[in-house]
Structures are given as structure tokens and as C-alpha cells.
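Quick log. Single chain, no ligands specified.
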Amino acid sequence: MTNDTAAVFEAVTRTYGSVRAADGVDLTVRRGETVALLGRNGAGKSTAVNLLLGLDAPDGGRVTLFGADPARAVAAGRVGAMLQEGRPVPRVTVRELVAFVARTYPAPMPVADALAVAGLTSLADRRVDRLSGGQAQRVRFAVALAGNPELIVLDEPTVALDVEARREFWEAMRGYARRGNTVLFSTHYLEEADAYADRIVVLDSGRIVTAGTSEELKRAVGGSLVSFDLAGGPTEWLGLLPGVGSYEVRGDRALLRTTDSDGTVRALAERGAIRALEVAPVSLDDAFLALTTSQTTPHALETAR
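-> predicted structure:
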């Protein structure tokens, strides 16, 4: 643990019955980073968030926030959180709610500052239970800011929000991050991770598959995506083509992730296998699927690690 470190997972395990939701997780989040947790349902994202906030305890290993026990860091106001569940508080205004929460912390953020960062200044005197979904989510953000945290943790923060509300929420989050604060968020929206995260951590079956910038993850599974229509028959030969690190078959179409698209296409031409050929850069969606599906080849995973 150093002064540059916000959160640390050290060989963390957590089991619920027969399900191993955290399986030897090692992760360090540096101060000032914005880190996204990606994974399919059941990958371990919410478990990681709960362990980080002290809402659950690991079976093995250790979780620390700013060098301390998570519950201690949360109580001191050094960490704020937005969880998936929450109901609007009736008959109170936005300002009243944020002020009430702020009074529970030893060194809170000024209420006016929390409202400004969350983009709620003009709505401060509006009742919380009369806000739109996007506005209510920004209120949850302001409440998470009330303790003046150095780290904010977001569990699927934009679920059920429309496109405009999601954009407004992330603009508010950018303002918080620009102050030098740390953000850790889980999401199903890969475009959010691509646009807002400095680093992306991919979880699968309770383990960290890989971590890096969006561009690093894309390069890890091949710089280009070559797709074409199959004519049936075996597909094992696809993984032997030049440059191909991994591949998928979706219906009658093959998708090859390759570091040498020219060589891959030439080899396909020699086999007479070019049918409705397309070549495109690998997207984060492509990289995510390659890293979390059983059809990914061992070579791709070794490269990603």
C-alpha cells in the first residue's frame, strides 16, 4: 500500500454455497483512476463492490481502502457509493436530503458543492419523489458525494436510464473525476467503459481475466475483425490461419480476431473461403466477448494476461 493507492484486493475469495463469486482476486486501484468492472451476469462484479464497501467480508484474502478496513474508510467519508437498489425519499427536497446525509460525516462536502458537481443546483428545491429517473440518479450521486469522498463506487449506475440521462450522468461524473478523485464502476454498457474508464478490468466466474486500457484489451484479442460466411463443415482450421488469435462462429458466419488481417484474408482466398467478406477494427464489444466466452482460444487469453 502506498500513498498513490486507493483500493487493494489481495488474493480475495468469497463463496456463496457452491458458487465461487470471488476466486483469488488481485487488484490495485490507484488514486485518480477511473476503473470499470466488466463481466457477464454472475461474473462477480457486485460481489467485488460489496467486498470493497465492507458490505460483505471475504472468506480469504484481504480488501483495504486507503490502507484501512473498508468499513472504517466508509465511516470516515473517504468512500461514497451508488448501489443498484434505492427508493426516492418522500416529501423532502433535494437540498434537504443531501444536507441530512452530509451531517452524518465528520468532514462533509459543502452541500452547494455536492449539488453543483452532480448538476442539481437548479433542482435543489424540488421534491426528490417528483424527479425523473435521470434526475433521481443524479440525486443518488450527490448523496454519495455528501461525505466528500476521495473514491466513489458505482454499481450499474445508469441501468434503466435513457440515452440523454446517461450522458448527463457521465458529464457530472467527469466533473468529479477532474478534481483528482477516484472512480470505480461496474456496468453492462461497454460503450461507457470505452468512453470513460482509464482502465478496464474484465471479470469472469469470479476471476480477473485481464485488465488494461480499452486499446490494450482490443489489441490483446487481435487488432482486426475478419468475418465471412461459412459453407458448413468443420471450423477448427479457422484458428490456424495467419494472425488469428481467437474466433467465433455465429450461425453461418465466422468472426476471426487477427493481428494480421492481410495475411488472414490471403489465406482465406487461397482456400476459396471468401464469401461476404468484411474487415473492421476490433471493438471493445468484440474484445469482451473474446475474453469471456468458451470459444476463445487459449492463445488469446495468454496474450490478454
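The mean pLDDT is 88.
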